[in-house]
Amino acid sequence: MKYEHLDPNKKDILIIDDMADNLRVLSSILTREGYNVRKALNWQMALTATQTLLPDLILLDIMMPEVDGYEICQTFKAWELTADIPVIFISALDDVFDKVKAFRVGGVDYITKPFEFQEVLVRVQNQLALRSARLEILKLNIELEYRVKERTGELEKALQKLQQEINSRQKLQSQLLDIALHDSLTGLPNRVLFMRRLENALNRAKQESSYQFAVLFLDCDRFKVINDSLGHLVGDELLIAIAHRLQACLIPIDTLARLGGDEFGILLENITDINIAIQVAERILQQLSLAFKLSRYEVFMNASIGITWGNKDYDLPEYLLRDADTAMYRAKAQGKAKYHVFNPAMHQEAIQLLELENDLRRAVERQEFLVYYQPIVSLTTGRISGFEALIRWQHPIRGLVVPVEFIPVAEETGLINAINTWVLKSACYQLSIWQNHPVTPEPLTMSVNLSARLFLQPNFVEQIDRIIYETKINPAYLELEITESVIMENTNAIKIIFQQLKKRKIKLIMDDFGTGYSSLSYLHSFPLNALKIDKSFVQRMQENMELVPAMIGIANSMGMSAIAEGVETQEQLAQLRSLNCNFAQGYLFSQPIEQQLVIQLLAAAPQW
User: Fold this and answer.
1) How many CB atoms lie within 10 A of CB 515?
2) Burial class (CB in 10 A: 0-12, 13-18, 19+), 524
3) Do 12 and 56 meet the contact criterion of CB atoms below 8 Å apart?
4) Per the omega criterion (within 30 degrees of 0), is the bond before 443 cis?
5) Could you say which of 37, 42, 207, 517 is the most buried, measured as most Cβ atoms within 10 Å of its Cβ?
6) DSSP H helical segments within 208-267, as ranges?
7) How far is CA 471 from its chain centroid?
8) Would the pTM count as exceeding 0.70?
9) Could you read off the pLDDT of 65-91 as tens digits, one per residue?
């Protein structure tokens, strides 16, 4: 940018972000609002820009190459010329520790990506107003000193004028402090003020044994849906209404703060036990369940609440808020519109979960996974007709980890797509090898479980085609297992995908039939080849004699095969045969085995 073309009457904003798209979007928005906007992709460009012309405000990303946003901010704060320039962090990092660190290194505000444009504009306007006010105060101070020196002969008049200026300055400082410590939308205390009051409460608890308090962390469960569908103005109106309703549930001594977005913090002071905090949470949930009658819409809202007891053993107030946040997520996991009280074991679980997630990311990079194979037996011939591919994680320290321990984390973090694709490709390669071996029966099928995330990817069928082409397998021998949740996600899109797979002669199996939605209507609508009866039903066949026969009957009546999982006894096998079940798998036949043992099993040609 040619700085001589900048309008000196406009506020100058420097955006530092290594993502060109972010720079372009932010620059466009702020330029449209009448600001001079300059952009820097890295620290060197940012340094050159500030040396050439000092900006009025800096928007700074944290995740930067070579020198991160924290270090850039510290450098600016250490340089006399840039020390007073306000820095607003804009980052995808949403952890409370990242935000606290941002404020510690000198940031004045923190906006979480993906950001709302109106929120960015309001916060930019606020910080520029704060800076202008500070400069005005500095100007006033200089003028005061000048007038005092110039009017020493008119002491009484000068003193009167000075008092007026001091009063003006105090009023302005009070206004600045109020702006800095309160949320501009709701007028509630913001995160900074809330943390100060939390710190005071913790210090008081350490000094007075009779003083007790609790912290509530509240997150609105459906706010994003309402905000996205009805617009940000409605969203803002709803947040104000929520704040009023929350305030009505509290007493004056309590502190209600808007921590950011649709998150609120509550400090309950001078309470006698945790039951009082629970009663407040229940009252809040009941009040939020009532309809919100806004200016143009009537909407419904609920929330999840985490509760932490104010233990004097906490070292920092941030830890109290962290644990309340952890409890809130536990409440959300229990079905939303609930509360949960934190206990120390949850913190340890959270740490272990984080360690597991980090290990899992490394495992994907290093391909620490193995595929085990469990035989599927035809109950007509009594021989092996195929295998199901089952993933295992060869952890370098913990050893072999079974799917139930890491698949939920993989689903939550989005790593499941890479893992699922790797398993599918590995299983198809193995099938191509076995099909060319002389001991392999013909035909031999390969069954692979697919997550809903992978199945709903736009390029899913193209990925399948690529794997089939690379492994040279006959797609008629490939069976894809899906759960009922896949169909429930997006019926129309799923029908199209099913039709494409059917054209390729790929088989589709409904896994864990009977444990989920279990509506017979979708069985008529989708070209499924088989239903897999969950092992929980097979193991309870003696207790409930009707369920398994009914499931087999449903499959047979619709031209589908029935596959029973978890077969462990000869009695179960005999009963399934008598019910005309087509296939079975379970420990009676074989536990999942490594690929090198499969040929030995096939060569032995076992018969049941």
Assistant:
1) 13
2) exposed
3) yes
4) yes
5) 37
6) 223-230, 232-248
7) 35
8) no
9) 889 999 999 999 999 999 999 999 998
3-state secondary structure of 188: coil
Backbone angles phi, psi at 178, to 5 degrees: -65, -40
Coil/strand/helix, residue 107? coil
**Tokens of residue 600, six digits:** 């030995």
SS3 of residue 514 by DSSP: coil
Up-side HSE of residue 36: CA atoms within 13 Å toward CB?
18
C-alpha closest to that of 585 among 372, 388, 452: 388
Say if residue 65 is preceded by a cis peptide, omega within 30 of 0.
no
Residue 502 to residue 490: CA distance in whole angstroms: 18
**What is the length of the chain?**
608
Sequence-separated (6 or more) residues with CB below 8 Å from residue 544? 537
Report yes or no: 234 and 294 within 8 Å, Cβ to Cβ.
yes
* DSSP string for 109-155: EEEESSPPHHHHHHHHHHHHHHHHHHHHHHHHHHHHHHHHHHTGGGH
Q: Summarize pLDDT for 460-469 with one digit per residue, the tens.
A: 899 999 999 9
Model pLDDT for residues 449-487, shown as the tens digit of each residue: 988 778 778 888 999 999 999 999 999 999 999 887 776
Name, in order, each residue with C-beta under 8 angstroms of 78's C-beta and a sequence gap of 6 or more.
Answer: none
